[in-house]
Amino acid sequence: xxxxxxxxxxxxxxxxxxxxxxxxxxxxxPDSFSDGGRFQTVxxxxxxxxxxxxEGADVVDIGGxxxxxxxxxxxxxxxxxxxxxxxxxxxxxxxGRPEAPLISVDTRKAMVAEQALEAGARIINDVTALAxxxxxxxxxxxxxxxxxxxxxxGEPATMQQDPRYGDVVGEVVGWLTARMVAMEKAGLSVETIxxxxxxxxxxxxxxxxxxxxxxxxLGATGGRxxxxxxxxxxxxxxxRRCPDGG
Length: 246
Known about the structure:
246 residues, alpha/beta, TIM Barrel, 6-stranded parallel beta sheet, 8 helices, 8 strands
């Protein structure tokens, strides 16, 4: 990563370039791949978030709906019940700590994102790249939240059913480029946007390996499409997530 780059997330800015940044994944779900069922109470989830902060997390990403392969969607109301109290409690716990992690909400629903932002989140991490809910782009623009646009082929329930690409790196770059341009036209600043190639989301192991090997090419492609190369380098370097996405 280059020095001097940044990711703007409401009233906070994450500086890039000095070291890799770490996103801690905190799933308040019964069925997620990595930690489903372990942090379903507010108390357990908050304690885990505090532990992540102590261990050096730059962002704590809270998700109330699993997006693992084969996952079934839950209602926005249920997702809010799971997520919002944890966001609020962690925001209160982090209050007054300038170096505390930023709180991210992992959701594809505008209602959940809005309530989480009101409770103290600063980032919207959307596996549909703000395409799954028509209200998401306007919410992102109004709030000034940091945004993660992720590539996913299909839906979580079906995305691993024989995914195919002619050129996985080129196709993912093209799709992410189109989404970022669309979000710019919707009024979002590029300084608020991070890009995620979506490792494990509608990809085979071979696709995942090619995407990881092609991260430098992803950054170079940005400049040829009229988007600063540094934007891709910055945001691909700043993003880490579980293979199942929650």
